[in-house]
Amino acid sequence: MIQNFDSQQSAHAAGYGYSNEKEAYLRRLKRIEGQVRGIARMVDEDAYCIDILTQVAAVNKALHAVSLGLLEEHIGHCVVNAAADSDKAGEAKVKEATDAIGRLLR
Q1: Cβ atoms within 10 Å, residue 106
Q2: Better pLDDT: 6 or 47
Q3: Nearest 5°: CA angle at 99, between 88 and 106?
Q4: Which residue from 1, 53, 59, 89 has the least number of CB within 10 angstroms?
């Protein structure tokens, strides 16, 4: 566990894959946050079920797009850099990414 923490510390010091796009990700997430607040307002105001479900689907799609972008950045930066450091580190990052993909697909 300490080794994992150390590798995360050094990766953080060097920046994560999404670092160059951080502001864009934050804007997208704030937009999604607003959509979720809008859905809550729709429920509070007794909006039609299908209209609410349509908005939920839009939020899910937006979150999916953020997830795919982060995953692409992770593989292109964190996994590639770890693999360049050592086979063991690269394998660990591939496993980490594979686990994350599994969680996204559930």
Answers
A1: 4
A2: 47
A3: 170
A4: 1
Taking CA atoms, 16 is separated from 49, 87, 96, 105, in Å, by 40, 20, 15, 23
Residue 53 pLDDT more than 80? yes
Per the CB < 8 A criterion, the answer to whether 29 and 66 are in contact is yes
Structure tokens of 95?
Answer: 């496993």
- Arithmetic mean of pLDDT, 59-71: 95
Length in residues, the chain: 106
Q: Which two tokens stand for residue 13?
A: 């010091």
pLDDT, tens digit, for every residue of 76-86? 999 999 999 99
Both tokens assigned to 98? 């594979």
Other beta carbons within 10 angstroms of residue 28's beta carbon come to 16
